[in-house]
Design a protein that fits this description.
161 residues, mainly alpha, two-stranded parallel sheet, 8 helices
């Protein structure tokens, strides 16, 4: 079996740390997130009810609500952080994936990888009861990743050579 040599060990290490930070912030229970997790006495019915109440498949519903809250003066900082955080939080993928994986330098392959990864992330939040599945999060996160892909295109070419 042929072993692959990691061409950019520092970038690979940063990528792994980035993925761990995303999992820490979005999936694993921690003190920096809300406590919407049932700990004891979890029944099948409670789990199904959680899943039923915590998903949104209507594109732009949440985004529109957040923008409405901002213009309505309701919890402006939190809503701006939600929108901007979802955009810029995944921009680093636009750098890491193309540098580390040659096939990810093609935009189509990059978008497919990001979309599948985000769907898995959202599903893991829903199934583990550490969040919800929201199509708007996928839209904002993917937009941020694509923005990062575009912004980091030149630096990726320099590092990848």
């Amino acid at each position: 079996m042929r072993q692959r040599k990691i061409r950019h060990p520092v970038i690979f290490t940063l990528f792994v740390l980035y993925i761990l930070a995303i999992l820490f912030l979005l999936v694993l229970p921690n003190n920096y997130r809300g406590h919407n997790v049932l700990v004891g006495g979890l029944t099948w019915e409670r789990w199904v009810e959680h899943i039923r109440r915590n998903w949104n498949l209507v594109p732009f519903r949440g985004i529109t609500e957040q923008i409405g809250f901002i213009f309505g003066g309701e919890d402006v900082a939190r809503n701006i952080i939600y929108l901007v955080g979802n955009l810029i939080g995944f921009a680093p993928l636009g750098y890491f994936l193309p540098v580390l994986f040659v096939k990810q330098r093609r935009f189509k392959a990059f978008v497919i990888t990001v979309a599948l990864g985000l769907i898995c992330l959202e599903l893991s939040q829903l199934v583990t009861m550490h969040g919800s599945f929201d199509i708007d999060d996928i839209i904002l996160n993917a937009t941020g990743a694509c923005f990062g892909f575009r912004v980091f295109r030149r630096p990726v070419r320099r590092v990848a050579q």
